[in-house]
Structure formats: C-alpha cells, structure tokens
Amino acid sequence: MINTVKNEAAGDEVTIFYVDDDRDDLEVFASIVEDIDGFAIHTLNNGDKAIEAIENPPPTPNILFLDLNMPGKDGFSVLQEIREDKGLKNLPIVIISTSDDEQIISRCYKMGASYYITKANDYNDLRKSIEHALKIDWASFKATDQDFYYKN
To answer: Would you say residue 3 has pLDDT above 70?
Structure first.
C-alpha cells in the first residue's frame, strides 16, 4: 500500500517515492516534503512494494528516495533491479541511509545511484539535505565521485 501526502498549494507536482522500513523515518520525511511546494510524496515500507508500485503506475515517481537497510528486498536490491530496467535508467535515485561508510557510498555510486545522503539525527539538518536534493536539476545533473555525497 502506498501512503500519499499531497501539498494542495502545488500546481504541477513532482512525485516522490520514499522507501524505508522505519515508520518514524517515513513520517518525518513526509512531513518535511509536505511543507515544500510542488511535491507529492508517496511512502512505501519495503523494497518489494516499491518495485511493485514503480512497475504499476500511476503514480509514476519523478524521483526515488531509498533506504538501504530493510528486511527482505533491501535498498541495494531495489537499486540494482531499477537500474537493470532500461525504461527506468533515468529515474533519479537518492540513497538516504544512516551509513556514512565510504565503501557503501562508493558501492551505491558504482551501482548507479544518483545521489547519497546520510540521514541526519537533527530535524533541521535532515530537512536541509532533503531540500538540497529536491533542488537538483535531475535532467542535467550527473554526479561524479566528488559531488555524489551530501555532507551535513
């Protein structure tokens, strides 16, 4: 099941999918996005539901925020499955994880993630990182290993 939050003030909305097994993280993320004009947020609590939702629109995500550590189909598996689908090769995928391990970040980059954010413990820092990712022009942004990782 997809939980949807829409910002009623927005006209042409950008559709965001956020996949995370942590209910609190889903609620905080949705709350942050709800306060930003122009975005509709759809939360999913596991990787299987994410793949099912992406393959069976509507809605169709314009950007996917993806946690790595989930039971069942984890974020690495979701990332790999999406990147193997030629129809989804241009879908921006932002990894949002508690891990700041350089090997994990490098692995995500090599697997084709678009961007990487470490989940901040502070609400304001988390909000800044999400807002930063939402301001990126995904049509033209191609991350290098130098600008792939958002540091709080």
So the answer is: no
